[in-house]
Amino acid sequence: MTIFSKNLFDPALDITLYQQVSTHLRGAILSGELKSGMKLPSTRSLAEELNVSRNTVLNAYRQLLAEGYLESRERSGTFVAAFLPELLLTAPRPDAPIAARPQWAESPPPVFSERAKAQIAASQPPSGRMSPRPFLPEVPALDAFPYQLWSRLIVRQARRMPLSNFMYQESAGYLPLREEIAAHLTISRQVHCTTEQVVVVPGSQGALDLAARMLLNVGDPVWMEDPGYPGARGAFLGAGAQIIPVPVDHEGLVVDSGIARAPQARLVYLTPSHQFPLGVTMSLSRRLALLDWAKHANAYILEDDYDSEFRFATRPLATLQGLDDADRVIYIGTFSRVLFPSIRIGYMILPLALVDAFLKVRRLIDIHTPMLEQAVLADFMIEGH
User: Fold this and answer.
1) What is the pTM of this model?
2) Which residues contact 161 (CB under 8 A, 6 or more apart)?
3) What is the residue extent of each domain of the chain?
4) pLDDT for residue 271
5) Residues 316/178, Cβ–Cβ less than 8 Å
6) What is the pLDDT of residues 22-81, one digit of tens each?
7) Which helix (H) or strand (E) holds 221?
8) CATH number for the 116-120+137-382 domain, one of 3.30.450.20, 3.40.50.620, 3.40.449.10, 3.40.640.10?
9) Which of 62, 136, 370, 372 sits at a 20 to 30 Å CA gap from 364?
10) CB-based contacts of 292: which residues, under 8 Å, 6+ apart?
């Protein structure tokens, strides 16, 4: 095979001999002079033809093998690759004919778990993708957010953040933020908790996912308000739970109906302060009845207090967690509703008996929530903003 001119090597070029060989071979392959599947001469014979050392040809072949222009076949030799990098990495022209794909290149359709299929079917796009308009759920008044103040806090934290904050952190979250959350909830929502019970998570959805992983087995019944929050339904379906729809009236979740439908439910999810999406507030008598049932059924209650910061007048009713004397309530809150959705910071108030186990599993999921945003939010709260 003679594809090399007598004047292949140019001493004026600022590249090595092997690079000149590889450049010439690459050009011959791309021009079609060396066609796909064609066998190249051995390194020894090509070195003799070019009157260079065998290492020069070896290095040229290795370079082209690494780039994908050549392929080596055991006990057969070196061949021009069937599919060149230019064909794989270059987008075709819009008017170019579509080449038939080789049979081996056809991929089988993906196979998902049954639980994943249920979650995919229940999934909905976030409301934040829509253009802002009145009565849009899940989005606060973004035009009222103090952007300049928030930007200053970000810059200040980024400049002074110690090196230790760039390392992996405690899965429970940034301690100053957890302290502020505990203090705020104790005063504003009558939640009974210590800093140790606060776990910072990626929004309320992260809290729901973690609780479902920790508390539910496949087939376990879960009470859910009907109508209710689709995100919670998706999290429970992901754990393989059996969703038990429980009606909502003017007093909130109808506890008697839930007991009649699934008296041995493992978990109850509800939004008692401001039911999603109907907006009713759960009455005190219903709250006490639910707590009494959970205590005797050994069930847990997920109290999603997603927008308790918003109210027209008077103080809200005490939280279920504040009324709980049997450690049956897991309280969930989020800053995505009161600040802005993309902050993705929420929190759980766990009964002390659950804290250690929840944190051990949390470390296997995402370890912890990003630090900079937690530190900025802590400053935002500490300074009274």
Assistant:
1) 0.71
2) 371, 372, 375
3) 17-94, 116-120+137-382
4) 96
5) no
6) 888 988 888 888 998 999 999 998 888 888 899 999 999 999 999 889 999 888 899 999
7) strand 221-226
8) 3.40.640.10
9) 372
10) none
